[in-house]
Amino acid sequence: MTNYHKPEAKLVQELRDIANKIRIHSITSTQTAKSGHPTSCSSIAEILSVLFFNTMRYKVSAPLDASSDRFVLSKGHAAPALYAAWAEAGLFPVKDLQNLRKIDSDLEGHPTPRLNFIDVGTGSLGQGLAIANGMAYVGKNYDKANYRVYCLIGDGESAEGSIWESVHFAGHYKLDNLVMIFDVNRLGQSEETSLGHDIDTYRKRLESFGVHAIVTDGHDVEELIKAFYTAAHTKGKPTAIVAKTFKGKYFPKIEDLDNWHGKALGDQADRVIAHLKTLIKNPGAPQVHPQKPLKDDAPSVNISNVQLSSPPSYKIGEQLATRAAYGTALVKIAQNNPRIIALDGDMKNSTFSEKLKQFDPTRYIECFIAEQSLVGTAIGAACRDRTIPFVSTFAAFFTRAFDQIRMGAISQTNVNFVGTHCGVSIGEDGPSQMGLEDLAMFRSIPGCTVFYPGDAVATERAIELAANTKGVTFTRLNRPNTPVLYPNDFVFAIGKANVVKQTDKDQVVVIGGGVTLHEAVTASTELSKAGIGVRVIDPFTVKPIDKETIIKNIKEVGGRAVVVEDHYYEGGLGEAVLSAVALERNIIVKHIAVPTIPRSGPPNALLDKYGLSAKHIVEAIQEILKL
Amino acid sequence: MTNYHKPEAKLVQELRDIANKIRIHSITSTQTAKSGHPTSCSSIAEILSVLFFNTMRYKVSAPLDASSDRFVLSKGHAAPALYAAWAEAGLFPVKDLQNLRKIDSDLEGHPTPRLNFIDVGTGSLGQGLAIANGMAYVGKNYDKANYRVYCLIGDGESAEGSIWESVHFAGHYKLDNLVMIFDVNRLGQSEETSLGHDIDTYRKRLESFGVHAIVTDGHDVEELIKAFYTAAHTKGKPTAIVAKTFKGKYFPKIEDLDNWHGKALGDQADRVIAHLKTLIKNPGAPQVHPQKPLKDDAPSVNISNVQLSSPPSYKIGEQLATRAAYGTALVKIAQNNPRIIALDGDMKNSTFSEKLKQFDPTRYIECFIAEQSLVGTAIGAACRDRTIPFVSTFAAFFTRAFDQIRMGAISQTNVNFVGTHCGVSIGEDGPSQMGLEDLAMFRSIPGCTVFYPGDAVATERAIELAANTKGVTFTRLNRPNTPVLYPNDFVFAIGKANVVKQTDKDQVVVIGGGVTLHEAVTASTELSKAGIGVRVIDPFTVKPIDKETIIKNIKEVGGRAVVVEDHYYEGGLGEAVLSAVALERNIIVKHIAVPTIPRSGPPNALLDKYGLSAKHIVEAIQEILKL
């Protein structure tokens, strides 16, 4: 701190003025919208003013520039203040702030990357810090650039466990290019937070989680300048600034009072604005300007046209788990693109993501047993197209991060999720470990591409395709070995189903995925002995589903189909097929899936017990042929 | 601690012996099963021995007795050790332990309440403490009984943020009848945990979260006895015992080594068992026995036959949000049953759960912004049929606790979830706050009853039915006002759809839920002017869906249906209907849902923009009539 100089009074006043302008904009824009969170904006006004006009280095002309500092507003409901800071910085006219929450404006109620200055959508609380971690990890370890990452967190949302997973991650990986700011304004939505203004408890918690904590008055511009300076000079650990603030600061008769969350000020607005104007010395355009990055030191990165370094190399009939092929594919794409990275939650020896760690330990990020942090970190790492992250764990455990994945789609992320150990076919570990609702979950994510590869060849190609696909992808993989079905040179495509078995005399179509695809093949072979032709279709992707191939083939066999999946009945492959044929007359579909909470037992015994084995598929075919 | 007496040497040796018997059983049962986690069992052997044979007060004859101490094994993969403790305590023959993981045995790979001594399923990590909190909160505040709650947590899973949400809850509510034991055995599944044996950091973190932390040697029976005694005499805060342990303790050449997670010992088993036998002084049946509860002081509780204290009282056409009717219904059932409770995550003024708090503050549990803790606490509170919990927040935010809800179903819980602010109809707050995948999520939960009441009358009855329904329930509610459709004496039933509009000359069925039901009614009225009869069906429950009524009505109108829902396309009402008609020829269904990530805007503008308004339903009907 030897070089620290106290800021000049003029600068301090200017930053105070900007803070109060941010307050006024937050009030007027929410007034126009008749909704929003002006009091939540007010508590962070000085923090934003100091960050955007003194501390951060960025380009107003290129808000998502690779070498610039990043800012994540985890408490997304304070969006009007963030929009105001960017407007004051000169990115767009201040008058545009009045478009807040209008249906044709990107200035939505919560931040969205539809805006050219937003990396990720926020608004579901407690998620910003994991994203900031991902950005900071990439900055420190891959970009090796000088940009710094700032994340502003509300005290209410710091009750979310995801915040503490992320504080731990930041401390563990010594992300000293990261500053987390806790806006401790005491008040939640419906009552005081459980810690209120107990600043010292925040400090102790943060310190125990491996962070350098600095307590400040969050409305004191000078203290904030000094705190950010100190943070920038703190090496070996991230800094947390615990800012004591007041909700509705400088809003007379509203400040620090209950029942003012999430509402425009209404008939109080004029009075409050009048008061705020008395605090402003320079009502004109800001006299200070954002600082640019010292240098453009983030390397240029190419994340397009990723290819397997060598084609799949298996023998038809060879027994291999698709999860094992995942590990192989991951290394192959990593060999061809240095920005392929893998993240896992202490499951790497089960998901085979450890193969990438063995190939290049620097490109594997261990996130330990903290799936929300795992997913959020990946979303952060993918920002500004810096990396192509693959995130693996058991399919069931992605349910832990459904909210993060949901927000990932809103954030337009390109993260690739890989879920192993799906369905009852995992065997003895029992239902807590079985992914039986993962297809329902990922299908419901807008724009998500859901791969369900049937063998090792298909898996390698699914992973290659995923790496090149915009938006969220999910690849569903099996624990047990299954035979290789496809030749090594088979060409797969998203939304293109493959007919894996057919004759001219087929009477029914069976559609299966993963283990049940193989059961369907067995059932088909069995019934062919009895002279019943069964066409077998592998959807390859469950979303988008290949409507055309499915309808064409079902029509060709006379309108009968059986869908069999190692998943619960709802939301999976069966309902994807039903949606595809919804407007077709004369198509009937018999759907077989897991009907109840399964037990522990050997994989094949469970497939049989829950009605998914070849024997049951044969029965289903015999039944539907009578209808 | 003045009354503490050092235990006699004989007792100490006996408890050591029991610990080593637990180790041997864990090895032999996983050997027979050829899978499982014997090393994870070994680290907790002394903890279980001391708890089950010295500390805890319970009835072996009635393991889920209301007045007995509770034990939650959060690290569920150590199930074989827990099963062994109960067998040694005399609940079932020791030889039955060899049925571990067999398909016809309830001794599953992870604990399940199919067993008569298990309250909740565990195995997805980091969830046990929230459940223990729920039990302890009920014991302290509702039962006002002497039973105590013990929760054993792995160090690997303590990386889960949910654990820290729960530690905070326990501290905040001063649950001094709760003891959390952290089994710090250093090793995760695939590598060392991020904190390893840094016991002091665990202690600091726990203390900063409001807990009395005691550091012990987890393999020292005397230290453990003393620690549990101290915990029992600590008032005003929960105690955390930080037990330093070793994975595979007393397994020579395996203890404290990597690569021994989750596997039977194989050819090392005989050698290890031989060594363990040398440590045992008394190889026969235990000479110490569990202590019974001092008194049967948990009150008897009746959670059956819950009824509204007065029938719904609305006027047809009256404008009211179904979320508001929820608050009314909650108070009405609470008036008739003292064990109705409500939990919320700082959304009570939006979800109207605050109405119960206003009626009886003792029956409202504020869980702050920590949805995983919120859901887990409710599951704990419901255990042993002590309460009927209603858990509310925005429908979107239940995605945060999908894993807990999934495990709740495995736990056979009776928790009722209530999700408000579903769909684009919430308006300006934007997509982060909109529940658009909640139906997909809850439909995928086995046995879950999914209510989607169409008005205030239906909502009151849905809540009444939910209170009486076994298994998980979910009720989906709207933010905006909608008109009352049903007379106050209308009788609703689970799985029974209601035809809300019909003529003899209908040409199409429209099925809608919540806001879209009202849009469908409007569309029907509109088209009737053009002489087109449109039958409108309210499903009331999306799961189970009323297959019979739906098929019958669609057939009556000639095989055409339109389904319109304020939800994404996948996994919701539309696919529920498609599943219902899957085996019907000559039925076609046009499905309208939210096609993409929505924007901020006024509710009605959004309904129109995303194709859900009456105008679009009219268009869809006109289209399907051409097919």
UniProtKB/TrEMBL annotation, chains A, B:
<dbReference type="Pfam" id="PF00456">
    <property type="entry name" value="Transketolase_N"/>
</dbReference>
<dbReference type="GO" id="GO:0030976">
    <property type="term" value="F:thiamine pyrophosphate binding"/>
</dbReference>
<comment type="subunit">
    <text>Homodimer.</text>
</comment>
<dbReference type="Pfam" id="PF02779">
    <property type="entry name" value="Transket_pyr"/>
</dbReference>
<dbReference type="InterPro" id="IPR033248">
    <property type="entry name" value="Transketolase_C"/>
</dbReference>
<keyword id="KW-0460">Magnesium</keyword>
<dbReference type="InterPro" id="IPR005474">
    <property type="entry name" value="Transketolase_N"/>
</dbReference>
<keyword id="KW-0786">Thiamine pyrophosphate</keyword>
<feature type="domain" description="Transketolase-like pyrimidine-binding">
    <location>
        <begin position="320"/>
        <end position="484"/>
    </location>
</feature>
<dbReference type="GO" id="GO:0005737">
    <property type="term" value="C:cytoplasm"/>
</dbReference>
<dbReference type="InterPro" id="IPR005475">
    <property type="entry name" value="Transketolase-like_Pyr-bd"/>
</dbReference>
<dbReference type="InterPro" id="IPR051424">
    <property type="entry name" value="Transketolase-like"/>
</dbReference>
<dbReference type="Pfam" id="PF02780">
    <property type="entry name" value="Transketolase_C"/>
</dbReference>
<comment type="similarity">
    <text>Belongs to the transketolase family.</text>
</comment>
<protein>
    <recommendedName>
        <fullName>transketolase</fullName>
        <ecNumber>2.2.1.1</ecNumber>
    </recommendedName>
</protein>
<dbReference type="InterPro" id="IPR029061">
    <property type="entry name" value="THDP-binding"/>
</dbReference>
<keyword id="KW-0479">Metal-binding</keyword>
<keyword id="KW-0808">Transferase</keyword>
<dbReference type="GO" id="GO:0004802">
    <property type="term" value="F:transketolase activity"/>
</dbReference>
<dbReference type="GO" id="GO:0046872">
    <property type="term" value="F:metal ion binding"/>
</dbReference>
<dbReference type="InterPro" id="IPR009014">
    <property type="entry name" value="Transketo_C/PFOR_II"/>
</dbReference>
<dbReference type="InterPro" id="IPR020826">
    <property type="entry name" value="Transketolase_BS"/>
</dbReference>
<keyword id="KW-0106">Calcium</keyword>
